[in-house]
Amino acid sequence: MDIQKLLFLPELASAHGGDLDRLMFYIHLLMGVLFLGWAIYFVIALVKFRASAHPVANPDGVQSHASSYLEVAVVVAEAVLLLGFSVPLWAARVDSFPADKSATRVRVVGQQFAWNIHYPGADGVFGKTDVKLIDAQANPLGIDKNDPAAADDFTTVNQLHLPVNRPAIVYLSSMDVIHSFGLQEMRVKQDAVPGLVTPVWFEPTVTSDDMKKRKGDDKWSYEISCAQLCGLGHYRMRGYVTIDTAEQYAKWTGEQAAAAKEAGSGDEWQ
Ligand SMILES: [Cu+2]
To answer: How far does residue 131's CA lie from ligand 1's centre (Å)?
Structure first.
């Protein structure tokens, strides 16, 4: 059974997403059963307790305990969903972060109305940033070029590249208001709150090229959608995500770092 099609969900492209979709399915199943049960009860009550069949009111009402047992069954089912599925899924998200070395790490900084993305470069260390160095065009994240760790860093606007089948840790923050980092196919959604750095991790499982083939659309792209109304330009706060093979990713990061270094050696910073 294809849960994604059944629930009209977007294509699935992350390792943990299948468990989330299954939880969604079980919750919908329980709600479907409850809806049907209540609808049937409603019709039975209308027919059975119609005025013509009961000209005199019966103050004792229903004596059977069936409804209590049903209530208990619903509570048990909800407890199983919460304790058996939701809590373990959430715990795995927030407690078992992958080791820094085995993950791709990026900073994503929301801003009205764009996503600034900061890559640490080959050394894996994010260079220092300073608000005083921010220049909307030349250095949107205020990276301190004098910090040796910043030498191989590079930034992009609205272009997030990640390698496939490798955990990715995104350190989310915001420059102005609350935004929300939404990757529908990865089943990731996390608020970007000014003053906080919120890490979120996931593992992409389908490259952009494979997904384009699956969709039969050459121009298709994964997107970062801002999932929190953040101002007048909220609707256009959209980033593009490319899930690369390991080789494609190494090539892309190499090119970006080289371009940043070149730009950084002059007055301009790209
Ligand atoms: Cu936003």
So the answer is: 20
Say what the pLDDT of residue 266 is. Answer: 47
Q: Give the pLDDT band (50/70/90) at residue 264.
A: low
Q: Would the CA dihedral through 37, 38, 40, 44 be positive or negative?
A: positive
Distance 237 CA to ligand 1 centre (A): 6
Compute the distance from residue 177 Cα to the ligand 1 centre, in Å: 8
Query: What mean pLDDT is predicted for residues 245-263?
Result: 89
What's the CA-to-centroid distance between 190 and ligand 1, angstroms? 12
**d(CA 193, ligand 1 centre) in Å:** 10
- Of 77, 67, 3, the C-alpha closest to 33 is 77
> What topology is assigned to 101-265 in CATH?
Immunoglobulin-like (2.60.40)
Q: How far is the CA of 206 from the centre of ligand 1 (A)?
A: 26
| Residues β-bridged to residue 100 | none
Helix axes 66-79, 17-48, angle to 10 degrees: 170
Q: Answer whether the bond into residue 113 is a cis peptide, omega within 30°.
A: yes
- pTM value is 0.85
- Ligand 1 centre and the CA of 84: distance in Å? 34
pLDDT at 270: 42
Distance 115 CA to ligand 1 centre (A): 8
Q: What is the pLDDT of residues 25-75, one digit of tens each?
A: 999 999 999 999 999 999 999 998 898 988 888 888 778 898 899 999 999
